[in-house]
Amino acid sequence: MMVLVGVHEHAMKLTNWYHKLKSMKVILGEDFLVLQILESLPFEYNMLRTSYNTQKEEWLVDELISILSQEEKSLKKSKDHVVQHVSQKNDEKMKNF
Asked: What is the dihedral of CA 7, 38, 41, 11, to 10 degrees?
């Protein structure tokens, strides 16, 4: 059974791993963590990645997690439902195929 994890929870897991590495004297920098979180996001968050990459300021991890929570809520609200309709035409042209 696969359990889907929200992006907020995913970012928190990456942050916890970052802090564990930091406690073992592996210093990567908070900007590295922000980039790793952004790069690991699903396709739906491409606009957020683009927004981050086009601005001059760097986000702190706490800011990113807050933004991700807001974005996740917004995406859930605006999610469109897609309906596909398939029909078959019964005429002489279709019978030849």
From this structure: -30
> Long-range contacts made by residues 54-62, C-beta under 8 angstroms, separation at least 24?
58/31, 58/34, 59/34, 60/30, 60/34, 61/11, 61/15, 61/18, 61/30, 61/33, 61/34, 61/37
pLDDT, tens digit (0-9, with 9 covering 90-100), for 34-52: 999 999 988 888 998 998 9
Q: Work out the mean pLDDT of the chain and round it to a whole number.
A: 80
User: What does pTM read for this prediction?
Assistant: 0.67
Question: Is the four-CA dihedral 46, 49, 51, 53 of positive or negative sign?
Answer: negative
- What residues have CB less than 8 Å from 14, skipping those under 6 apart? 33, 36, 37, 40
